[in-house]
Amino acid sequence: MKSKLLAGTATAALSLTLFSHATSAATLDDVMRRLDRLEKENAELRKQVHTLEGQRGPAAVAPAPGLKGNPVMHARVAPSPTPPPPRTVAGIPVKAGPLGPLIDNTTVTLYGHFDLSVDGLFNSVYDQGDKAAIASNGSYFGIRVRHNLAPYGYEGYAVLGQIEAQVDVASQPTERAALGTRDSYLGIEGPWGAIKIGKEDTPYKKATARMDPFANTIADYNSIMGNTGGDNRAEFDWRMSHAIWYESPIWNGFQVSALASPGQNYAQDNSDYSYGDYFQCNGASTRGSGSNFPGTGGAVPGNIGGQGCTDGSFGDAYSIAGTYKNGPWTAIAAYELHMGVNRQGDDDAVLTGGAPLVLPNGQIVMTGVHNEWAAKIGGGYLFHDALGDLQFYAYYEWLRREVTAAEQPFNERSRDGVFASLTQHIDKWAVSASYAHAFKTPGNPAVLCFNNSVDCAAGGTLQANLFDDSASMYALGARYHFNQWASWYIVGAVLQQGPGAHYCLGPSGHGYALCGRDAANNTIGGATLSSVSSGLTFDF
Amino acid sequence: MMGMTPPLSAGYVWLGRLKVGTMDMHPPPGYVQLAQTRRGPLDILPSPPPQAAPPPQPAAPAEPAPPPDEQAAPAEPTPIKVDVSQYIPAEAIAATIIVTLSPPTGWALVYTEGSEDNGTVFKGGRSVGEIKLDGRYIYVKLYGPTSFHIQYINFNVP
Fold first, then answer.
1. Per-residue model confidence (pLDDT) at position A180
2. Identity of the residue in B88, B90, B127 whose CB atom sits nearest the CB atom of A156
């Protein structure tokens, strides 16, 4: 009995022990089986996914009915893979950088243009000779922001802002590197066009911009076209400050643009800085023609403003242009008016306290303050020849300063001009030639130097209004387009001018202008200027 | 304990050299959850040895596989080629346009050849936007609408 009791007790104890182990063993075993099953299921799913991916094959997609245009039925035209779903904000697709949209329904576009060149300069001025140079030619960087108003009930409308800065890539840093030095504005656009406020190339300037195959190079047509007095400023190829303008949409190829810019000047003769234009005369090149900081060269000492804006500073300005582009045909007409253009710097009336400036033949220079205007008409045609497209452009220009008869002998701002260009496209190459001519003006206020150091040291004796001041520029060049965004070019230009003329190569666009001036900044009449330039451009 | 015993099989446990049958019991739910969320247990569990990838299947002679760049395209709407040179000069590198979609649902993607990833999306019935230009043609893909109309607003020449 006792042994049975012991055996029963031992069995019970063993059973309890085994029972506890059995519980643990059963649990682990079950987990292993489940995990093993999961692993197999996972492997099976992977296999199915791979199989499905391998089975994706081409399936023709018929064009939807009612589509306009020429359908492209093969995929190689657009060989990129299926794009990810567009980024959306409130259900509206938006386009933005990697950081995402800054504001809902807003597109931010970063854009820019590089043009860097290596130039060979050949100047007939007695102390200049041949030089090599490197230039940054109208390079810029900009931000354009378009805020789409369609989701707010204004279908087809957007608010548009742009800040564009010139980037003088190759030159010494100056205040010109500040943001907003080029076309910058805020406006609203819609089906009826756009209204913008800020500063922008005038409609007059933009009307023919596409006609110059050598824009911003040393052969830029602004050496003559839109350039009233020669030198390094094209008054009628201008970026107008404190302006408001309208740009129409394109109606069957026709577009009209109009701009107005108030002079907003303290001085009635526009000899002061415009409101908001500190140390910079309206219509002057940067820091030129009376524009400078108080007490420094170029500015009249004393008060801010200095009333030193007497070399082309103008008041109210208006510009309008109509363009037509339909198939191979192009036509343009444009007009621009600068009111109250102060040229008293030429007759010294202000700088010398009213003392007359007397020319070698005894004439007393009178220039004063008068309106100036310009008009141009032109056109183009795109031929298709055996080599490719052949683009021809030409236009005629009238430049006028409305002076009195007594002032005409000193009027170098009234003349006609003509320009023509021809570009033959051959695959990725474009070979271009251009010609610009400035007809003789009715007068001239300047006394220039003959091309020698003795005459220049004496202040010059070449009375310009007694000589022919017409000029011609010839240019020839080629451009290789890697694509629409990058190109390499080489161009050569020659500027020939009469003894009374003082035009330059490369004003208003090229990194600098090559002028007929000696080392002491004396202007030599009739210098022959030529240059060869090769550069690389890149747009983004 | 597990490390001192031969591998377990379901329903049995080793007691010394004895193989003893045990009860089948469900594991505690918390334990299963832990085993599924931790990576360690999966690594030590027995699993089939890695197998070499099966040899690639030779393509059927009658139906050669399409090039890779054509495999993804069919899922996309057919691009519609539009010639903009009628009103936009060849020198332009960008243009502002208004795209009207009909019906006014979905959106349109407008791009130049080879730059589909950098296209511009026009959403809704009528919206304005800027497109890049590269030559005389642009392409339009319609995601939902069946037709579209382009109004040219402006263009940019560098």
1. 75
2. B127
Q: What is the pTM of this model?
A: 0.75
Tokens at A90, concatenated: 């409130």
pLDDT at B70 over 90: no
Nearest CA in chain B to A25: B13
Closest Cα in chain B to A144: B130
Is some CB atom of chain A closer than 8 A to the CB atom of B37? Answer: no
Q: Measured between beta carbons, which residues in chain B are less than 8 angstroms from residue A60? A: 74
Q: How far is CA A64 from CA A67, B15, B16, B141, B148, in A?
A: 6, 75, 77, 11, 12
Order of strands, sheet of B94-102, starting from the edge strand that comes earlier in the sequence: B126-132, B94-102, B147-156
Under 8 Å between Cβ of A525 and A450: yes
Q: A255 vs B154: CB contact, 8 Å cut-off?
A: yes
pLDDT score recorded for residue A349:
65
Is the ipTM higher than 0.95? The answer is no
Instruction: Spell out the SS3 assignment of A56-85.
Output: CCCCCCCCCCCCCCEECCCHHHCCCCCCCC
Find the helix or strand (DSSP H, E) in which A5 lies. helix A2-55
Q: Which residue has the tokens 């002079």?
A: A263
Tell me which DSSP letter residue A101 carries.
-
Token pair of A103 as six digits = 């504001």
Distance CA A118, CA A135 (A): 7
> Is residue A225 a contact partner of residue A274, using CB atoms and an 8 Å limit?
no
State pLDDT tens for residues A336-345. Answer: 999 999 998 8
Report how far residue B15's alpha carbon sits from residue A25's, in angstroms, rounded to the nearest whole number: 11
Q: Give the number of beta-carbon pairs within 8 Å between A and B.
A: 249
| The predicted structure's pLDDT at residue B15 | 45
Q: What is the DSSP letter of B134?
A: S
| CA-based nearest distance A208→chain B, Å | 11
